[in-house]
Structure formats: C-alpha cells, structure tokens
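I have been asked to look over a protein record a colleague put together. Alongside the sequence sits a line of tokens, each denoting a local backbone shape. Please read both lines and tell me whether the tokens look consistent with the sequence. Take the sequence as given and treat only the tokens as open to question. I have pasted the whole thing underneath without changing anything:
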Amino acid sequence: MKREETTELVRERFLLCRERIGSIPEETVVGEQYRDFFVTTAGFIRMVLEAYDKVADGSYRELPLEKLQVWNRNLYGNILMPNYDRSYGNPDCAVKTFGVQLGQLMSFLYTEVRGLIVFAFEQKIWDMTVICELFLEVYSLFETAAQEHAEIRPGEVQKILYWYLSDYCAEMVERRIRDTLDPENSFAMEIIREWDLNDLRYLYQFGEYVTENELQTAEFLNSLPREEIDAMARTYTEGYRIGFLVGRKDITKKKSVNIRYQLGFERMIKAAAEQFAAMGLEPVIYRAAAHAVNKRQHIRIGFSGAVPNKQYEYDHRGDAALYLDEDFVRRKLRATQMAYEKVKELAAVHGGPAVVEIFGEKPFSPETKETCCQLSKKQQKLQVEYQNESGQIVNRYIKGEERSFTIIAYPVPEIGDKFRKIFRETVKINTLDYHLYQRIQQTIIDALDQGVRVRIKGKGENRTDLTVALHTLEDPQKQTNFENCVADVNIPVGEVFTSPVLKGTEGTLHVSSVYLNELQYEDLEITFSDGMITSYRCGNFADEEENRAYIRENILYHRETLPMGEFAIGTNTTAYRMAKTYGIADKLPILIAEKMGPHFAVGDTCYSWAEDTAVYNPDGKEIIARDNEMSILRREDPAKAYLGCHTDITIPYEELGSIRAVKADGTEISIIEDGRFVLPGTEELNIPLDEPLELEEEE
C-alpha cells in the first residue's frame, strides 16, 4: 500500500512519545483521583502501539484467527457494553470522576485518543504522533498542578484541546480530503485485492471492530458461486453507470469512484472494483473519519466495520461544543478551500459515491444524557453555516451537474435465523423487472400530471392529512412533474417522485415508527405550512421537550425549519411483502422503505446542485419540478438555497388511507385507496400484497 512520507522529525517525535507514555503507568505524581484516567489511557495507547509494530513488521497478518479476535476485542473492549459504564469514553463516568466541565473535556480527549487504532493499522505516524502529543500535554498539565499543589482549571485543558484542533485543522482536513479522492491511498483496496478472501483473518487487517455480522456475511458470500457474486456486483455498478446515462452526464470524463461499504462484503466489492475498472474508474475506498475535526456528529461516512457501541457514538455527537467558534469555522473553511485547490485535478475526474448499505441490525433508540456536550444556539448556527459553505466549496470542485451516485442495500445476519433467505429475497428485489415498473409508474405519472395538487391521508391511528402542491405544466405534451425512478442510482426499483411547490403544501405527516439515519423514532408527527415545517413531535421520551430536541438535532440539524424537498409514491410492493413476511419492516433501510409507500423528504430537493441540468423520463418528457421556492434562491445566494440534508420519511401501506391527484376543477383521480393501488393499469402491484404470509424453510 502507499505509505505516507514521514519526516525524520515526525519519526523522532513519535519515538519520544512512545517512550514517555510507556513510563506513565509506573508514575504516581498525578493526584489519585485522576491517576486512573492517565494510567488506563496510557495502557490503551501502549496496546495500540504494539499493534502498530505487529502491522509494520508483518507479524499481525500471520496471527491465527483466534488471536486476531482477542486483539480486536481488547482494542475495542473498553467502550463495549457492559464495560461502558466504567469507560472514560462514557461522559457519565468521566463527569463522575472529574466534574461536569472537566469531565466532558477528558471524555473528549479519551475519544480522540481512540482514533489511534485505525491510524496504527494504516501506519499513519503523523496522525498517531499528534494524538499522543495531545495526551502528553494534558498529562503534563495535571502533573505540574500536582507538583505545585494547584487545582486543575477546566479552561486550561480546554485551551490545550482547542489549539490542538485549531493548529492541526488544515493538515487534518487536507489529509482527509485527499483520502476521499486519491485512488493511490489504497489501504482498504489492497487488502481486498491481495488477501485470499476465503481466509477470514483478512477482516481483522482493517483495524475496524469485527462482529459475527461481518464474519457470517463474509462466510455467506464465500459460499456463493462466482457468477452470483458478479451478478450482485453488476446490479450495483450498472446502477452507477445508468445514473450517468439517465442524467445525460458523461461518465467518460470520470476516472474514480468512491466505494462505501461495511466489512463483510469484500468479495462483492472486489468484483465491483473490477467492473468499475472496465468502465475506466479506479476505486477510492476511504475510512469513516477518526479525528474530531473531520467527524460529522455520530454519522459514519466511508467504509466501516461494526459500530462497537452506538450509544458511545451518540454520546459524542455534540463534542464540537467544546471548540466550535467563529474563528474555528473560518479556519476550517479556509482549510477546505485550500485542500480542494491542491487536489482539484483529482476532484474534477471524481464521479461520486457508490454505496452498499446494510440492514437488519437491532433498531437503536438512544439514551439522552445530561453529561453529554450540547451545542449552544450560537454554535448550532455556526455548524449550519459551516455545512452550507463547505457544501458550496465541494460543489465547485466536484460539480453536481457532472457527478452521480448509486446506493444498494443488503441484510446482515443479525436480522435473524432467516438471514440467508432474506438475503436472496433482497437480491431478487434488487433485480426486479425494470421495464414492468417503468410502464406501471408511467401510468401513475400520467394520472398525477393531471392534478394541480395531491392529497395524502392516513387511516386508522395514522393522522396524516397532507396536501402537496405541484408545479404548473406549461406544455403537458413535453413536460412532467414526476421522475420515473427505476433501478439506477436508487436500487431497488419502485418510486415516482417530485419536488413540490412549497406554497400550498400543507398539513400533517404522521408515522407510527420509522428508522432514520440510524436512529429510531416512535409516533413521529411533523406539520407543514406552505411547505415549511412549523411543528414536530415524537414519542421516544416521556418529556415532550426532549422529543422536540431529539428531532431538531437529528432531522432538522439544529435549524428552525426545513422545507419539504420531495414527495414520492413508492411502488415496490414486493419489498413490502418481504418485510411483512419476515417481520423486518423496522429493520429496513430508508433506501428500501421509501419504495414501500408514499414518502416525504425534508431538506434539499433531489436535484440539489444540478437544478439547471435538464432531466428526462424514458417517455422523453422533461421533468420540470427540479426547483422549489428555496432552491431557486441559489441564483442570489447559494447559502440560502442549500441545506446539506435530505431525510426521507415513509408511510407504510397499512397506515395509508388514500392518495389522490386533485385536478383544477376539484375532481379527483385515485391512485391508492385503503393501502391498495386502484388506478387502472397498476393492479399488478397488488399481487404481492395478496400473497399469503408463508415462510419458506431456511436452506
């Protein structure tokens, strides 16, 4: 693999850190109250450094599977349940030891130190050195205070952390951006290419946490014949290629593709890389961020192993509160601009992401802790400002009108004892008849295009009552409001979607349970007025304010409101039947769930950054609903137009009363009534809904 160039000065600093950290467990200068933190953390660092040595000399790859599993468990053990109650990564534990302000700072420090694991496996000495130096600087502060019999002031620790993040911001951002674009940074790809993937020891060479999900997924893929693996990969890579074709974008201008996936799928990823290479695209596989500077709350972007503890990740989602200020935002934006300028040739030929998602894990509903860091209102605005402006920088170098993407999803063994059957059913869903759905969906679009608005109502306990306003078609013979979405960028097939007119889009969206961005929401209700969110609630917590704060942070991303950026009707009743048959509706990713009923996205439209690029349906009509009253503001100020988020919320068929297109004269065309498709020409979609719920025996 390509190793980073390490100067002698950095190597010397690294060796000095190793020596100093090695002596800490035997020292007793620091006060007894705090000593355990430094001894424990120093012991963890020494363990990581030992792993670094074994990776460097090649002995790690020679270890038997059982020893690799012990290493993996030891590296991640401190933040796993039930050890988490005693871990300094848990803000509750750190605050109990150090007090609120100092405890939050020390828990952040411990979390930053844990980034050493992945840097050790990638042999990134610079990253390891700056983290070790940070730990030693804080230790020195405590040591000096003990010697002088002085109190530790939290402000002094915060100052050390702030200047660490500030001083190294440019370097960390530049390294991260280069990793996201440069195929030569091929750490993961070289493991995939060089290892015998039947030898499951390869999973432990990435430095990520490995569970039975990853092991059993890899074993299952190894049991499949090469032609099945190639076919799975082909669905994924062809979806990417067709995305360029449908969007009338020239894929031949592109030289790289970003592959994102979770460990266990390497056999498919290897086949996909070969297929992408045949298209002239080199894979870029970068890891989810480890430095706080490059993280985005609890969301992982990049390749990843299992999440050791989702509560741990959630507990640290607001750590930026410890350092986020105007100077830091300006510094990071400058660093981002400078970094992209340095790699602008790589950015210009980058095609965008090809993502393999997983589903089947137990839905996660987090515990909210008072000890966690919380962004102030000023910091929330700064974070929104950063996201808006950084998005503009990215789009200048990786142009929205020239890039594309694709997303596909597969189950993991945690879904239950029917995993193999569900996996094969998912493969079938991902390869449903493209032309059949294209024809049926065109029938739906033809009906919807006769309306000036669409009315959506729930049934039973579902309180949904929404009116979605549609754009005016000046030339219905050549124009349409809805895109006929089959199996290209969003696999599987099965939706028609539009960007609503905000003015006149009114009412309440309600769903009994939904899983969004890895978080579960119960009894979620959002109200719109002129297309903008005016109120929201859910039933996750006993306290109503806690529920609102949960939604504001994780759906609105600290904004006061968001527009309805998309309205769609999902048509994949086959996926819906699979979900009902196996009882896995609560475990499906939004990628599949959005095809199983009407869905509504809050945030940007589906055409953000590419509104001026004409898009056509297979029947030749141009989709004119690419803008709304917010996105059109890009012509004045892009910061007002783009929000950097797009969250889909689906109403399942069984909670759906009706979807009707309303004409200008007030007459209605029924698309769905009582959860069934009633529009002539769509009856075939009801066949899966009528099939009996019978489980086949597992192979």
